[in-house]
Amino acid sequence: MRQDRPVGELLREWRHRRKLSQLDLAIQADVSARHVSFVETGRTIPSRSMVIHLAEHLGVPLRERNRLLVAAGHAPVYRERPLADPDLAAAREAVEQVLRGHEPFPALAVDSRWNLLLANAAAEVFLDGVDAALLEPPVNMMRLGLHPGGFAPRVRNLAQVRGFLVPRLARQVARTGDPELSALLEEVRQYGEEAGPVADAPTDIALPIRIEHRGRELCFFSTITTFGAAFDVTLEEIAVEAYFPADEQTARHLRKGVQ
């Protein structure tokens, strides 16, 4: 667990991460630059509403907003519960419905650290035959996709996939400052050489992946859907990755069902 640091130091770190000056933040948040300076240097302890206000303008994730609040001496305001919590039953059912509705094509839901939350039956394309140790909870899909014991050996365009995923994870680390993601990034970088980064557009919404499955080569592109939730950490961090057939052969094979 990270050591607690003063709220001003944490806010300054987020401001630097967003490449904003104190004046930039002050203008965006409609507060004085002097007040921003006093908060960052610890001369002023911000109120709960001010912490939330500045965090909103800095685009701080809900999990980290709670950390800012605690550092300022306030109670967290954003709830975090496991997806299996009874209070999230309706949300879980909604995600499950999205996954089922995508069949016979693969779809899965992950959290912000790429841990698998839910998957439809067709996602077996990726889980089949991987090292059992990698399927011990929590199953991490970034690790599973790039680890030599995962499904990486079955990916025919692995260099291209690595060239997309590793820089994407690096950007996520830079954006969030999450130490667990940082450790994951260092880990996956040990699995193989990185190809040149894949351009953000158009592959951010159409990453091709060619994977061998039971003697056939299947080709997919993927899209990611996130759900905004103003007051719930768990729901804010859910992402649904849906895989679509990139050719008619793949579509026909999956519609018939994997034998």
From TrEMBL:
Superkingdom classification of source: Bacteria
A family per Pfam: HTH_31
GO terms for MF: DNA binding
Domain HTH cro/C1-type: 11-65
Name assigned to this protein: Transcriptional regulator
Organism expressing this protein natively: [Actinomadura] parvosata subsp. kistnae
